[in-house]
UniProtKB/TrEMBL annotation, chains A, B:
<keyword id="KW-0479">Metal-binding</keyword>
<dbReference type="Pfam" id="PF04389">
    <property type="entry name" value="Peptidase_M28"/>
</dbReference>
<keyword id="KW-0458">Lysosome</keyword>
<dbReference type="GO" id="GO:0006508">
    <property type="term" value="P:proteolysis"/>
</dbReference>
<keyword id="KW-0256">Endoplasmic reticulum</keyword>
<dbReference type="GO" id="GO:0070573">
    <property type="term" value="F:metallodipeptidase activity"/>
</dbReference>
<feature type="domain" description="Peptidase M28">
    <location>
        <begin position="270"/>
        <end position="484"/>
    </location>
</feature>
<keyword id="KW-0732">Signal</keyword>
<dbReference type="GO" id="GO:0005764">
    <property type="term" value="C:lysosome"/>
</dbReference>
<dbReference type="GO" id="GO:0004180">
    <property type="term" value="F:carboxypeptidase activity"/>
</dbReference>
<comment type="subunit">
    <text>Homodimer. The monomeric form is inactive while the homodimer is active.</text>
</comment>
<protein>
    <recommendedName>
        <fullName>Carboxypeptidase Q</fullName>
    </recommendedName>
</protein>
<dbReference type="GO" id="GO:0005576">
    <property type="term" value="C:extracellular region"/>
</dbReference>
<feature type="region of interest" description="Disordered">
    <location>
        <begin position="501"/>
        <end position="520"/>
    </location>
</feature>
<dbReference type="InterPro" id="IPR007484">
    <property type="entry name" value="Peptidase_M28"/>
</dbReference>
<dbReference type="InterPro" id="IPR039866">
    <property type="entry name" value="CPQ"/>
</dbReference>
<keyword id="KW-0378">Hydrolase</keyword>
Length: 520, 520
């Protein structure tokens, strides 16, 4: 392995990181230990806490310091022990399903006829009043099987990546928050309506075909969980029930959800560990990935891949046995799937405050936070010199997004240059969304993500029962871990600092000509 | 709907077939009745017989005559009542699996540690002797998750179809039969070895990823069924067990297969029905599709689609209320999945004899039959004027294969011409294989199949747990049914007859320079 030229940091260190990470990677054995043995990690579940202990042990074994958890307000814990969903009439047939997370348990196995009653607005309730008692209610429109001609599995071509290099003007839709709240609240209202009508359970359709199920669910404040058991059913099975019901076969379904609420601890926890730096005045750099997952698979690509990469990057740097100038901090976030809650809490505790009513919870708090001004930085705000996040599956790194911060491109490109030969040579200006660097960026902090090959993440793996170690790619994980470690090492030792974006003082501008579609 | 010009037959009748079949199709409601209500139809199972009764009732309701079954020698019946496969250690996790058809049942739920012991040749047994007692044996190599970049769902472009238009010279590999027999026999020998070693069950890996399972299996002569319970496991779950076993987690699995053998009736049955013709001397035309299926899905695209198309074509023609010149016969074959057994038996009984040792069964009989000469035609041989088969999913007809019979192309094209506007205007010379027209063609009879859009048949549906009505296409089924009926109607009334291929007198020629790979 030739010693590569690293413009910043120690080029011999980069070569050692590459050698260790490519030749003696522990990424996939660690991935198996987390995903195969422990399994999915719903925020504030017993399994998540088990995984936290496992990660803290691993950080300590790998020689990291200051290993600890940082709790934050979350909500009710929920543990899924077992479940089954089967058609009983007109013939016995196991169905592919998953309980909606935070669904109430059933009282043992409940069996009932189904009724097809699609409802997506409160004004639809009237039609079904008095007709749902004793029924399992199919609340979604059935739709049709996909004729998608796209590939299941994808690696980016250079022109795919070039198409990502687009500057998007910030835009704020003032109606969006209210619509989000309304849609989010509707599930709870629907469940309450069904419960009041004496229904047995509610069933929604999966949003992907091919017998994929997901089980995302959101009502997790005490007293706000769904009023009756809720199941997500595979499209094929949902439409089978619809066809049978529509042709007089009177299907009956049996559902068993053995789940336990836990209100004894309403806090979830981020896991934090550090490699201390030699210069306490130089600030610190950080890498992170969310550790929590949904429940249908093992949370392997979302986001075991990012978590394992953070753990492996920590190992690779610790193994150098050389103190970086700046401290390198590693964080495994929780509550990401419910609204970036762990990283948002971390911002509140470490970086800046925004004037949000503390009585707001969940989606209301999320929306209020995003639009609350002014942002008041705390002392630690200036200490975070770079943050690298990973949450787009296990696909290899192809480069980095500058998140609209044109001023940061030069230095990011410089740090990336040792990894050209590993195929990670692209820099694009566009923003990425939906994960834990977003709120850091929102307050002007330097949070970045890498361009990753898509693999089959969006087509079938993300949040689904296919999100297992099998759909991670060992070669890609090795490469990502090496680059994550190398970027951190250079950022920790560089004489330069990433230029920051401007601290926002008000929401992004609004389109003055926008006319809202009243049917939305 | 304009009256179309039909070069043969009655153009008003074609217009009425199109009107009825496109505007008042019963294809999908019939499909739901068969697949959703009755479900999969393994040859000689109780469910297959239930479906036979259903089909005979439907033929009778649709006004067909001479509705009956024709039994043929098959083997043991097998009925799967329920099954479950779950990982128990290191954590509780339901696994996606299916029993191999004709697997022995388990004695209730059996739980045991797994051992990874890939064996594909008898010489591999020695390595595992004495090591398998009390174990659930994973007998396949684990392989890796697919990175296939092909589309899940496909409709043919004109150039895709042009590529099918290739004449392939007949070729006979004299080594192939022995290799087929050896590979086929190996599963039985492996099961017997495992049983003798005291193993609990054998587990093989699915041949597709994405949690698809299939459950094909073949040993069905009395006394020849597998010696111990056999399970096919989803790739994702199989490799999870491998990773856990390889990293010391000592996985244990619980298997329950509630299945019943039935040796009381070793015959399976083809279903036959007719629309009688006005001229008994004019011979008859025929359409067919295999009615049997595998067990993981509902046998919707393989081959409910063909069966439903045959039933709908019968309805469309019967509804004309006009007697065709020639009788039109409809056959729903059984035993296709085990080696075209129903259509082969039909040939023996109706069309021709070949000198095969009657003591040979299953694969041995299949291979011997294909290579037995001379072929001695029976009187009915000359009466079959055309046969149209359907067994390539529910994709719309795009044209027809002339199966290497260049002399038949002109008339096939003429009969197809009324359906140009429905997109079925292509004629290609290549042969199709693997279904019930093949043995008719093999003895020189005019058996044809239509070019069909592939949809997601090969990519994920064929034989898998996704083979449900959901993956059929209603528009395509309407179109196929109309064309099937129209082709039959024209063939039944035409003054012309399809030119026959030459009656074979010996196997296809062999490549004189072929050198066999000894590792195969």
């Amino acid at each position: 392995m030739p010693v590569l030229a690293a413009p910043d940091g120690d080029s011999a260190a980069i070569a050692r990181i590459i050698d260790e990470g490519m030749n003696r990677s522990e990424a996939m054995t660690t991935a198996s230990a987390l995903m195969d043995r422990i399994g999915p990690r719903l925020t504030n579940s017993e399994n998540h806490r088990k995984a936290e202990s496992w990660a803290m042990d691993l950080f300590r074994q790998r020689g990291l310091a200051n290993v600890h958890v940082e709790p934050f307000d979350f909500g009710v814990g929920w543990n899924l022990d077992s479940y089954s969903v089967a058609m009983v009439t007109p013939r016995a047939l196991p169905l592919t399903a998953i309980p909606v997370a935070w669904s109430p348990p059933t009282a043992g196995t409940v069996q009932a006829p189904v009724v097809i009653a699609p409802m997506s607005r409160e004004e639809h309730f009237a039609e079904w009043k008095g007709k749902l008692a004793g029924k399992i209610v199919l609340v979604s429109l059935p739709g049709q099987t996909s004729e998608s001609k796209g590939p299941v599995f994808q690696r980016y071509t250079d022109s795919d990546i070039a198409a990502l290099d687009t500057y998007t003007k910030p835009d704020f839709d003032p109606d969006a928050p209210a619509i989000q709240v309304r849609n989010r609240r509707f599930q709870g209202k629907l469940a309450a309506f069904l419960k009041a009508e004496g229904a047995v359970a509610m069933v929604k359709i999966s949003y992907r075909d091919g017998k994929l199920v997901h089980g995302e669910g959101y009502d997790f404040q005490p007293g706000q969980t769904l009023a009756l058991p809720a199941i997500e059913l595979a499209q094929e099975d949902y439409r089978k029930l619809v066809r049978l019901a529509k042709t007089g076969a009177a299907p009956e379904v049996a559902i068993n959800v053995a789940a336990r609420y836990d209100e004894s601890n309403l806090k979830a926890e981020n896991v934090v560990a550090e490699i201390p730096g030699s210069d306490p005045k130089a600030g610190y750099v950080m890498a992170g990935a969310h550790f929590d997952s949904w429940i249908a698979g093992d949370g392997a690509n979302d986001n075991g891949a990012g978590s394992i990469t953070v753990l492996e990057a920590a190992r690779l740097i610790a193994k150098l046995g050389v103190k970086p100038k700046r401290t390198i901090r590693f964080v495994l976030w929780s509550g990401e799937e419910q609204g970036l809650l762990g990283s948002r809490a971390y911002i509140d505790q470490h970086y800046a405050s925004r004037p949000v009513d503390p009585s707001l919870k969940g989606i209301d708090s999320y929306i209020a936070w995003r639009n609350a001004f002014p942002i008041t930085p705390k002392p630690e705000y200036s200490q975070l010199k770079a943050y690298f996040n990973m949450d787009n599956g296990s696909g290899r790194f192809r480069g980095i997004y500058s998140e609209g911060n044109l001023g940061a491109e030069k230095l990011l490109k410089e740090w990336l240059s040792p990894f050209d030969m590993l195929g990670a040579d692209k820099l694009v200006v566009s923003k990425t969304g939906g994960t834990d660097h977003v709120f850091l960026q929102a307050i002007g902090l330097p949070g970045y993500q890498f361009i990753q090959d898509p693999l089959d993440y969006e087509s079938r793996v993300h949040h689904s029962n296919l999100d297992t170690v099998d759909h991670m790619r060992a070669d890609d994980m090795r490469q990502a871990s090496v680059i994550m470690a190398g970027m951190l090492w250079q950022a920790a030792n560089s004489d330069k600092e990433l230029p920051r974006a401007v601290l926002p003082t008000q929401p992004a501008p609004t389109d003055p000509f926008k006319v809202r579609d009243p049917s939305q």
